[in-house]
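Supplementary Note 2. Why include the ligand at all?

Several targets in our set were suspected to adopt different conformations when bound, so apo predictions alone were not considered sufficient. For every target with a known small-molecule partner we therefore ran a joint prediction. The input for S-adenosylmethionine is given below.
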Amino acid sequence: MAGYAGSRSGQAGRRSQAGAQRRGQGRERGKGNDSGRHNRTRGQRGQADAEGSNRRRRPSTVDAARLVSLEALTKVRQDGGFANLVLPPMLDAARLDRRDAGFATALTYGTLRLQGRYDAIIAQCVDRRLDQLDGVVLDVLRLGTHQLLGMRVATHAAVSATVDLASHAAGRGAAGLVNAVLRRISQKDLEQWLAELTEQAADELNALSATHSHPVWVVKALRQALASNDRPQEELEALLEADNADPEVVLCARPGLISPEHLVKEAEEATRGHAHVGDRSPYAVVLPGGDPGRLPAVRSSAAGVEDEGSQLVALVLSEAAVEGRDERWLDLCAGPGGKAALLGARAAQRGARLVANEVTAHRAELVRASVRAVPEGVVEVRCDDGRLYGQAEPGRYDRVLVDAPCSGLGSLRRRPEARWRRQPTDVAELAELQRELLVSALAAVRVGGLVAYVTCSPHVLETELVVRDVIRRLEREGRGAEVLHAGDVATRVAPVPPAGADRPMLQLWPHLDGTDAMFCALLRRTA
Ligand SMILES: C[S@@+](CC[C@H](N)C(=O)[O-])C[C@H]1O[C@@H](n2cnc3c(N)ncnc32)[C@H](O)[C@@H]1O
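The joint prediction is reproduced in token form.
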């Protein structure tokens, strides 16, 4: 199969890689230092070693950044942790400088995303099944393979530093194995390995799964999603590549609270890099990197981290024309509150009020924090089951957002471990909950009012089929809803229209729009 040449850094996505990850990958770490070891200051070493009483003391031969990555991988694997939550406190505790933190972040995220590809390669170089290897040894091998094939680390430095790491974390015997395996892997470059995996695969689907590091069922689901959106199947590979690229850090300048231009200036002052406004949302600001939490606007919640696609689908609801009363808005599944803050800010400008509901108490708290800059009295945060709104408050609302819990197959870039955790059976279970929430929303909205049904997944079972099922069900019960043209609304709202804006049900794509694969169907209640 053709098309792998040049895929080393992932060609997908229209923009460059972000922040810490970019800093980590964009240099030849270890070059000029034969051992690949990294000298640390006394203070850094002491702090890293003191952290965690049952952690073995790190000898000076073990690189602190690689050790943090290994510990993060192990925590993700053993405890079911999420890399975006596990890693930052580890980076802080180890007191890595910006450069090393960037390297550790790129190493951890890249290794997790490409784990399937690397396992397939490692499996060619060991004499036993991978599940017979010690988990920590496998983690070390994955980290070493990513340095060799996915980062610009010199071969001798990658092998030597990873062998030291293996020796520290799993003993001398493990170090010998790691040394032998990494040396075999380093005998071929990425293109040669990918060609080999493709040749050995049973069929094209399995080849794509191994080479692009997605479970087979996810590749199938994405292929089906492209087909149901009339997109050429040749795009599948670009979509898979986009899932393996680092997403940019994007902020939403919440309208009325801070302008995008002001936020760009603030971001540039804080990061000393070039920030710019986005092209899929009029409120998006794309950061050059750095920690967005340091910006005053983010600390005050005048702005928040939010993918451009996520902003756009919320705006499809708020900016679509509605006839009659337009005062009561509802966000049925609001946690952690990115869309609620954007909708609340727009509601404040339009004299409307927003109920932001979330079923989980701690996520409802996150919603409160997210909307705290919106003028007092505009947003009411509630903690209830969204499925009850239709019965409890029939016909009360003018606009309702259902940002339904979903498989998250549209945001695999941001959640590097998610693809390995999700199961196909999750999708069917979620689809039932999604239907119930949409039915409730269509009962809570008044006749003539609007409902946006949104997922961060392009899976047809969670998107189009949920909408069509619910409309059929309403018709059977003597109620009704019609699908409006979400693509037209998005075209009007977005500075640059999304690639799929010609379709009534809007599907955004990482490889075409540079956003998460958000889905949005806009419905009007007709009876
Ligand atoms: C995709 S997230 C929403 C993201 C949010 N709109 C944002 O932009 O930040 C889905 C949310 O729905 C919540 N949820 C799950 N079941 C629910 C239910 N029955 N009623 C209300 N919320 C629910 C989940 O806890 C989760 O926070």
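The first helix runs from residue 19 to 25. Residues 249-303 form one domain. Comparable summaries for the other entries are listed in the accompanying table.
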